[in-house]
């Protein structure tokens, strides 16, 4: 029996005992996202007008930037997120991030490309870099969810992925538990460019959630200190800011 037949048998067994489910309601669904959740997600999708920097939805067409970006210096140029970080999106990302639902990453990446391929091509990044986890946290979790997203995006967009050039050298406290000033202090010098880094002009950073932008800013700052000219980002979801 050749390897391809054995692989087909394995895949059929996996589907039989662990059928594909919608990542937002966990109902069996071969299409990825079920029809009901598609309708729910439409209400959470970020629409124009968007902040021209962080991509957060803003109320007025007359404004170019959200309140956060008007009062904060960002090291990144621009970024986009697909959905508001509310149920069922936040629950789905939690499963992806902490409960080993790695296959969700492929579906999220497909949705990001479907919605933002035009903008990504305009940014024209030389490389995609996932926001890294500290090695202790990665060892405990077993994987980096941002790396899963980045690898899927790289495959779909035919853009190289570099998971070795940026490292998290500080084991930071969870950002969600901290206030604005504490978040910035928590992430000061948290990231470092490694000896594996090869100079590039444009980088696309990838993470799961954008809350206040402090994590992405800290990563972008480390890259720019090593000569990167422009840094952009993509995330699955975005919070409401400070």
TrEMBL record:
Pfam family, one: Pribosyltran
Double zinc ribbon domain boundaries: 15-70
InterPro entries: ComF/GntX_DNA_util-trans, DZR_2, PRTase-like, PRTase_dom
Residue ranges of every copy of the Phosphoribosyltransferase domain listed in the record: 120-234
Chain segments annotated as transmembrane: none
SUPFAM superfamilies: PRTase-like
Family per record: Belongs to the ComF/GntX family.
Protein name stated in the entry: Double zinc ribbon domain-containing protein
Source species of the chain: Dorea amylophila
